[in-house]
Amino acid sequence: MNVTVENFDDEVVAASMHTPVLVDFWAPWCGPCKVIGPLLEKIELAYAGRFKLVKIDSDEQQELSQAFGIRSIPTCVLMFQGKPVDGFTGALPEGQIKAFLDKHVAQGDVLEAEVTSVEVSDAPAADDPAAIHEALHQAMLKNPDDEDARFAFIKHLLLLGQEDDAKVAFAPVIAKAAFVRRFVSLQRWMNAIDFAADQAELAGSLAGFDEKIAVNKRDFDTRFAKAQVLMAAQNWVGAMDELLEILMRDKTWAEDLARKTFIAILDLIEPPPVKVADGQIPPVDPVVATYRRRLSSVILS
User: CATH topology for 8-102?
Assistant: First the structure.
């Protein structure tokens, strides 16, 4: 089964709710891929439905490869209940692949996962992280086309530092992400996390950014890099302050990249809407309100 962005949700995410799905990232030019591919197909037949094998051409489906953070091929990722649970890289021998699968697939009866309904009245307690996670996950599974539910779940995963799970949940909407502002905001956050991960090897990267900025306050590339690292660390105010420093000096720098990233942060930190009685004004987050005003002041100045 060849999987693309268009059928990823059905063939991988939905299918993995009841049967483990092994996703094989490959490419036509990859020699080891030609070795492990037929071997995986042979093992799938031998396991007789205990797992499902799908293939993703990493060249043709670069969005999915990026979503999973694929850096080399062949790479296999095992999905269950909509999330990656394990994986391996390289053309492993048959015995090692079977040992890998046997840790996860059912020995007899097929594993099942029930998608339950979560009503507003069943909202979990604020001090029960596991219940909150499950409620958000189930809400997305019940209504996969509900943009609000998907945004809330992906945001929740990113806040917990579960970037891989977040990218998997984001993958089904990659094709339309550019047309949904809050999905664009999530993508900018994930890009910042990936950028910060690359910077992690550089000890004291923030100090290094500050040294460069002190020399040249119009070093916008360095200012933006610093904002990315702060954004990845969920230092939202620090990131927005740095972006404002760019905007105060060049409102349209890099095709409005600073402004667009600033707006993305506002999308990400804005609390979910709260239901209020008729005639009452919903509460406003003070940080969001303050930084919306600051942005307007700079843009309109």
Answer: Glutaredoxin (3.40.30)
